[in-house]
Amino acid sequence: MPVDRTDTAAPPAATRSAVANGSRLFVEGLDGRSALARRYRDLVGEFTADLGGDPSEAQKQLIRRAASLSTWCEAQEVKLANGDEIEIGPLTTAANSLRRILQDIGIERKIRTINARRLEQLMGDDR
C-alpha cells in the first residue's frame, strides 16, 4: 500500500545530515573543490534538472550513482585518449550500468517549444 507523505513534515535542516540537507556531497572524505568533485556536482545538477528538479529520494540515490559512474567512465576515457592502456571490460560494465540507471530513472530530454523569433535566431540569415 503506498504511503501518503503529504501529512509528514520534513525534519528541520539542523537535525538532518549535511548530505540530506544539500550542504555536502558526501558524508566525509572529499574536498569539494577538486575537478572531479566539481564535475560530479555538475552532473548531479544536470541529471536532477533533467528530471524536473524535484526527484524522490530513490531518484536522488540513482542520480548520485549515475554521476559516480559517469565521472569514472570519463576518467577512463581520458586515459584512453592519452594513449594509456585501460581495461575495456570494467569500462564496458560501467557504461552498461550507467545506461541502465539512466533508463530506470527515466532521464530524457524534453522537447521545448521555441517561438518564431528564437527559431529565426537559431537558423540565422542563411535561409
From TrEMBL:
Domain of life: Bacteria
The name this protein goes by in its record: Terminase small subunit
Species this chain originates from: Roseibium salinum
Lineage of origin: Bacteria, Pseudomonadati, Pseudomonadota, Alphaproteobacteria, Hyphomicrobiales
